[in-house]
Amino acid sequence: MSRSSVTRASSRFSRRFLSQLKANKGRIINVGSIASFAATTGGVGYGASKGAVLLMTKAMAVELAQLEIRVNGIAPGLMITPMPLEKTVLSGDLVEFDATPYAGDAYFKDWPKTLDKVAALNPKVLVPGRGAALTTPDEVAKGLAGTRAFVVDVYESVKAGATAGRDLKVVYQETIEELRPKYGHWVIFDHCMPFDVTRCYDEVTQYAAPRIWTAERDIQMWKALEG
């Protein structure tokens, strides 16, 4: 949806239902995107429209606060998009092909179950987050299997190390050494592994849900693992 479409729709909605919103101290929720905050290659038009949604939401919140009407926004990230008529699935980063999954915000125990649900859609074509499009059922199965194997291997290695009482740095070193022969040729392996192992270590020890990655935490992680 274009920037002008979003602003027109939100403006018309606010005017049309202003009396009800005032009477009930209502809320308006605008839907943006992760692109409201982060630029991507080839995303000039899309990023501009989603950035506009973010600023529009803030401006509406200020303007309508005096009427006790709350205005908030949500910014979804990548999500799977099934296209049943075409037997095609756009998987986002849920599935990668010959590329290392970034799992810094993942739920490792749940990931394989989600891959099962994708497989149950019986797609003939799957477009992964990274890597070539998978254009036959055999290629789709291979892509799903490769991603599953990586996720399971990381989880089992990290869990074994954590259960044995080893700290994050040691577990990271052991896991990357164990997985490199099988996955080291995958794109961005060395970049993703620190985030993947750190998140997995969190999950099997004390943080069931992903923690927010801040700039400070990013620096701390690199120093702890690679310093």
**Percent of sequence in beta strands:** 5-15%
Rg computed from alpha carbons, rounded to a whole number of angstroms: 22 Å
The H/E string reads HHEHEEEHEHHHH
- What topology, given as strand order, has the largest sheet? 3-4-5
Low-confidence stretches: none
- Cα distance spanning the termini: 45 Å
Report on the biggest sheet.
3 strands, mixed
Question: Total number of β-strand segments?
Answer: 5
Overall, the morphology is globular
pLDDT averaged residue by residue: 89
**Helix/strand structural class:** mainly alpha
Number of domains: 2
Query: Helical percent range?
Result: 40-55%
Can you count the helices? 8
Give an overview in words:
By secondary structure, the protein is mainly alpha-helical. It folds into two domains: 3-74, no CATH class; 81-226, no CATH class. The protein is 55% helix and 10% strand. The chain contains eight helices and five strands. The strands form two sheets. Strands 3-4-5 form a three-stranded mixed beta sheet. Helix 4 (111-120) packs antiparallel against helix 5. The longest helix is centred in the middle third of the chain and has 27 residues, at 137-163. The termini are far apart.
